[in-house]
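wait is this the right file?? whatever heres the structure
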C-alpha cells in the first residue's frame, strides 16, 4: 500500500496532463472545423480582405463600407473603445461572414503605465520583470479593445548606432531568448481567449539588428550558420512560448528581403518550428521590395510575398489590388490564400473574438492602477546600472544640500523613451519631483537645469548650474538623450552626449564638489570622459513612468542597485561592433600592446605586437557585457564541477559559494559563461548560458548551483548540423563577462 501511495500522485499528474492534452486537442479540432466551415463559404475577395490590415482612416463611415464588404481583416491604431465597438459591430453584424476585426497597436513597453524601455528591462536580467511589464501593458491595452501588439522586438543588436537597439534586449542571444519568451507570456497571459490577453508578435524576422553600419532599414549579410547560431534562437524561444504571430523585417539578408524570404518563413518558421499562427509584414515592407530591387512592381511584390508565406499585409494594399489577378494568372495558387486565411482565422478564434468581439465601454479604468505603478517602479529600480562609485553613494546623512542639474532631471516626456504613443507625461514622476517629494525633508534641494534639453547648445545657463553646485554638498547631474533620439529611423553616427551636456558636466566637475552623473538614454553612449569626471555614474535606459522615484530611492540608499549591462559599452564609436561573444582572431590582443601615445618616433614596423586591437582605444570596451556594481560587494568561491568529463546526454552541474562581503543587503546577477575551445568552425570566446538573481544579507553566504544540459552546448557546425561536438570546454561563474575563474571540462562522444 505504501508503494501504491507513493506512485499514485504521479499517476494522477500523468492523468491530469493527459486529460489537459486531450481537452486542448479537442478545442483545436473544434477551431479547425470552424475555420474550414467559414473558408468554404468565403468568396476570394473576402479571403483576400482577411489578409489586409489598414491603419485607421479616422472616418468610421469610410472604414465601415470596406468592413461591410469583407475587405479588412485588421485595423491599426484605434484606441477609443466606443469607436472600436462601432467598427467591430459592422464586421460582426453587418458583413456577410461576420468575421471580427483584430484591433492592433504598437504597445512596446507599456500602454499607459510605461515601463523601462526593453533594453532597460534586459538590464534587470530578470524575466519576471519582462513578463510583468508585458502583462500590465496587455491589461491596459485590452481595456480599450486592443488585442494584438507588435512586440517583443527580439533582434540581436550589437551596434548602438542603430536607434532600434532601444526596443530590444541587447547583444546576447541567450538573454534575449529568455526575456523575449517572458514578454510573450506576459502579453498573452495564461490563455489567448482571456479578454486581457493580447497576441504577441515577435519581430523583426529576421536579422534586422545587424543592419550594416547601424543604419536603419539597411542590408544585412548574415550567413546561414551565423543566422542559426545567433539571430534565430530568440525567435524559436518565442515560438516555444506560444507566440501567436510574427512580423517580417525591413532588411534584406544576402539579397533577399524578409517579406519575400521563403526560406525563413516556410522552411524555418513553419516546417522546422511548427508555427501555426500568422505572419504579418512590417509597415509597407511588401511594397518596399520594389526600391530594394527585388520586385519589379506592386504586383510582383504581392506575388513574391504571398508565395513566400506572408499571411497579412500591413497597410500597402498590394494584396487587395493584385492577388485576385495573380490567382487568375496562376502566379499565386488559391491554396496559398486559403492557408493564409486559415492562419489568420485560427488566431482570431484563439483570441475568443468570435465569442466576445466587443470591449466593455463602461469597465472601470485600469490605467495607471496602483499595482501597475508599483510594478513599473520595481522594474525601474532593477534596471538601473551603477557603473562607477567612489564611495559617494548611497548619499550619507552628512549630505545636507544637493544640487539637481541637467536637462533630464525634470523631463517627464523624455524619460518615457521611444515607442510611447499612449503614455501621458502628466503621470510621469521625474527625478527632481521625486527627490523633492521623498527626500526634501532630509536635504535642501537646489535645482538649476543648466540646459533646457539634451541637444541644447546654449551655454548661458551653465554658469548658474555651476554656482548652484558650488553651494551644495553633492551634485546630481541628469543627462542623456531625449526619447526622439532613439528608436526607429533614429540612428546616430556620433554617440557622445548631445548639445552642451559635456560642457555642463565639465563645469560641474571644476567646482570640486562630487558629481553623481545619472544618464538616461535609449542606447549605450560613449561617455568615457564623463565617467572619469564623475564620482559616481548611474546608467538608465529610459526608465518610464516611475523612473524618478526609483532613482531617488537608489541615490539615497532605500534601494540597492543590481542592474547589469545588456550590451557592451564602447569607449568610442570606432570600436563598433564590439561585443563580448566574438570569435577569436589568430592574433588575439594581449592587453600589453603599445598604444598610440606611447609609440616612439620612427618605431619599427614590428614594435607594436601585431595583435588585433586599436592603437587609440586598445582592445577592451568602456564597460563589458553583464557589468554592474552594487553598494555592497560579492565574493565567489569554491567553484566546482560535479564531473569534469561528460557525455552528450549528461547535465553539467557546477556548484559555488556566493558571499555578500559588504555592508548592505544586495542582489547579485550571477552569470554562467561557457567556451567551446575547439570546433569544426571557430567558436565564440564566451557565451552566456545561464544567470540567476541572488539576494544576500551582509555577511551571508549561500551555496548555489547551475545545471546545464550538455545538449545546450550544441551549435550549427561545419556540416550545418546542430550538434554538440566532443572536446575541451571552459566555464566561468562570475558577475560579468570579463571576470571569473576559468574551469575546464571535457565532453566525450
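ok assuming it is, sequence goes like this
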Amino acid at each position: 500500500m505504501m508503494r501504491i501511495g507513493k506512485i499514485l500522485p504521479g499517476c494522477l499528474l500523468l492523468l491530469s496532463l493527459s486529460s489537459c492534452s486531450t481537452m486542448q486537442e479537442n478545442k483545436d479540432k473544434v477551431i479547425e472545423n470552424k475555420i474550414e466551415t467559414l473558408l468554404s463559404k468565403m468568396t476570394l475577395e473576402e479571403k483576400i480582405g482577411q489578409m489586409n490590415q489598414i491603419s485607421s482612416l479616422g472616418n468610421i463611415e469610410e472604414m465601415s463600407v470596406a468592413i461591410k464588404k469583407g475587405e479588412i481583416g485588421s485595423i491599426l491604431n484605434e484606441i477609443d473603445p466606443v469607436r472600436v465597438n462601432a467598427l467591430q459591430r459592422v464586421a460582426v453584424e453587418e458583413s456577410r461572414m461576420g468575421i471580427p476585426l483584430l484591433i492592433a497597436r504598437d504597445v512596446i513597453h507599456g500602454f499607459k503605465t510605461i515601463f523601462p524601455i526593453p533594453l532597460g528591462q534586459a538590464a534587470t536580467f530578470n524575466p519576471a520583470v519582462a513578463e510583468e511589464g508585458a502583462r500590465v501593458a496587455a491589461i491596459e491595452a485590452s481595456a480599450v479593445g486592443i488585442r494584438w501588439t507588435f512586440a517583443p522586438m527580439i533582434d540581436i543588436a550589437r551596434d548602438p548606432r542603430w536607434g532600434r537597439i532601444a526596443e530590444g534586449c541587447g547583444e546576447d542571444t541567450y538573454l534575449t531568448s529568455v526575456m523575449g519568451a517572458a514578454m510573450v507570456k506576459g502579453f498573452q497571459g495564461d490563455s489567448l481567449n482571456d479578454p486581457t490577453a493580447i497576441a504577441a508578435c515577435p519581430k523583426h524576422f529576421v536579422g534586422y539588428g545587424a543592419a550594416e553600419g547601424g543604419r536603419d532599414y539597411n542590408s544585412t549579410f548574415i550567413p546561414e550558420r551565423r543566422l542559426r547560431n545567433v539571430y534565430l534562437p530568440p525567435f524559436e524561444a518565442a515560438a516555444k512560448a506560444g507566440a501567436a504571430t510574427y512580423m517580417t523585417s525591413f532588411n534584406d539578408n544576402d539579397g533577399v528581403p524578409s517579406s519575400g524570404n521563403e526560406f525563413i518563413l516556410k522552411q524555418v518558421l513553419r516546417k522546422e518550428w511548427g508555427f501555426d499562427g500568422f505572419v504579418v509584414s512590417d509597415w509597407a515592407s511588401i511594397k518596399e521590395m520594389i526600391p530594394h530591387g527585388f520586385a519589379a512592381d506592386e504586383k510582383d511584390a504581392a506575388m513574391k510575398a504571398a508565395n513566400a508565406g506572408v499571411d497579412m499585409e500591413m497597410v500597402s494594399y498590394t494584396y487587395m489590388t493584385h492577388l485576385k489577378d495573380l490567382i487568375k494568372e496562376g502566379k499565386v495558387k488559391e491554396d496559398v490564400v486559403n492557408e493564409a486565411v486559415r492562419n489568420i482565422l485560427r488566431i482570431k478564434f484563439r483570441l475568443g473574438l468570435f465569442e466576445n468581439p466587443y470591449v466593455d465601454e463602461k469597465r472601470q479604468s485600469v490605467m495607471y492602477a496602483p499595482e501597475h505603478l508599483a510594478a513599473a517602479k520595481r522594474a525601474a529600480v532593477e534596471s538601473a546600472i551603477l557603473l562607477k562609485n567612489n564611495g559617494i553613494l548611497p548619499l550619507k546623512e552628512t549630505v545636507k544640500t544637493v544640487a539637481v542639474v541637467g536637462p533630464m532631471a525634470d523631463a517627464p516626456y523624455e524619460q518615457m523613451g521611444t515607442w510611447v504613443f499612449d503614455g501621458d507625461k502628466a503621470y510621469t514622476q521625474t527625478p527632481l519631483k521625486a527627490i523633492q517629494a521623498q527626500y526634501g525633508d532630509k536635504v535642501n534641494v537646489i535645482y538649476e537645469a543648466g540646459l533646457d534639453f539634451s541637444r541644447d547648445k546654449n551655454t548661458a545657463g551653465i554658469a548658474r548650474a555651476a554656482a548652484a553646485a558650488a553651494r551644495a554638498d553633492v551634485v546630481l547631474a541628469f543627462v542623456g538623450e531625449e526619447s526622439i533620439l532613439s528608436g526607429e529611423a533614429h540612428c546616430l553616427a556620433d554617440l557622445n552626449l548631445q548639445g552642451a551636456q559635456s560642457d555642463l558636466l565639465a563645469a560641474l566637475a571644476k567646482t570640486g564638489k562630487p558629481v553623481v552623473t545619472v544618464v538616461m538614454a535609449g542606447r549605450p553612449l560613449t561617455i568615457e570622459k564623463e565617467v572619469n569626471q564623475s564620482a559616481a555614474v548611474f546608467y538608465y535606459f529610459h526608465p518610464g513612468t516611475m523612473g524618478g522615484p526609483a532613482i531617488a530611492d537608489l541615490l539615497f540608499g532605500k534601494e540597492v542597485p543590481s542592474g547589469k549591462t545588456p550590451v557592451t559599452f564602447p569607449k568610442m564609436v570606432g570600436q563598433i561592433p564590439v561585443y563580448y561573444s566574438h570569435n577569436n582572431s589568430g592574433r588575439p590582443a594581449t592587453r600589453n600592446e603599445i598604444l598610440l601615445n606611447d609609440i616612439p618616433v620612427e618605431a619599427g614596423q614590428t614594435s607594436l605586437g601585431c595583435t588585433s586591437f586599436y592603437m587609440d582605444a586598445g582592445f577592451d570596451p568602456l564597460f563589458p557585457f553583464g557589468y554592474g556594481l552594487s553598494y555592497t560587494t560579492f565574493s565567489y568561491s569554491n567553484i566546482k564541477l560535479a564531473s569534469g568529463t561528460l557525455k552528450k546526454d549528461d547535465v553539467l552541474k557546477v556548484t559555488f559559494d556566493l558571499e555578500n562581503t559588504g555592508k548592505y543587503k544586495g542582489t547579485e546577477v550571477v552569470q554562467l559563461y561557457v567556451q567551446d575551445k575547439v570546433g569544426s568552425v571557430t567558436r565564440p570566446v564566451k557565451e552566456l548560458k545561464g544567470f540567476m538573481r541572488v539576494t544576500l544579507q551582509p555577511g551571508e553566504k549561500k551555496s548555489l548551483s547551475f545545471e546545464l544540459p550538455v545538449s545546450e552546448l550544441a551549435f550549427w557546425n561545419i556540416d550545418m548540423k546542430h550538434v554538440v561536438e566532443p572536446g575541451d570546454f571552459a566555464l566561468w561563474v562570475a558577475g560579468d563577462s570579463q571576470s571569473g575563474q576559468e574551469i575546464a571540462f571535457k565532453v566525450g562522444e
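The radius of gyration is 27 Å. so i think its the right one actually
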